[in-house]
Amino acid sequence: MTFRDTINAILNNWNFHRDLTLDILENLSEEQLNLTVGKNMGTLGAQFRHIGRVQTQYIEAIENKKLGKIQEEYKPEIAKSKKELLDYLQNTNERMMGFINNMNDEELQSLKIDWTYWKEKEMNLAGHLTALINHINLHNGQIIVYLRTHDIPFPKSWAAWGL
């Protein structure tokens, strides 16, 4: 198995988890984006916006070879618009996939990302993408709390998780 094969397997895993996130968002109404579940949890729409920001931070780290504060402009208002959230998440994903797919095998293999921002030394691309999946799954878990609290049904794709 080549390193590119490893990265492609990780990206397939990413797409599975990312599609779960998108399936929920696609099934929500605009009104449901304003739901909350408790102190300091924000709205459900803010959770989806944050997921896009997390992915942006990881993309910027790949592009800059250094994890740091997100450079992209912060747009809190998109948390209220299902269309804007879907567009943001799709565009963010296309940006990441395009950047990675345009890297040659040597670039994929040799890429090291400085993780001192989060008190780690460095990570290769496989570790970095795996950390992204883990981070997004944390937020998918938070989204589960919103749906359960407000009796919102889960899309069929979530049957894989018994929901």
UniProtKB/TrEMBL annotation:
Keywords (alphabetical) are:
Metal-binding
Q: Which domain of life is it from?
A: Bacteria
Q: Which Gene3D superfamilies match?
A: dinb family like domain (1.20.120.450)
Question: What Gene Ontology molecular-function terms does this entry list?
Answer: metal ion binding
Annotated InterPro entries: DinB (IPR007837), DinB/YfiT-like (IPR034660)
Which positions in this protein are listed as binding a divalent metal cation? Answer: H50, H135, H139
Family that this chain belongs to: Belongs to the DinB family.
Protein name, UniProt field: DinB-like domain-containing protein
Gene source species: Candidatus Spechtbacteria bacterium RIFCSPLOWO2_02_FULL_38_8
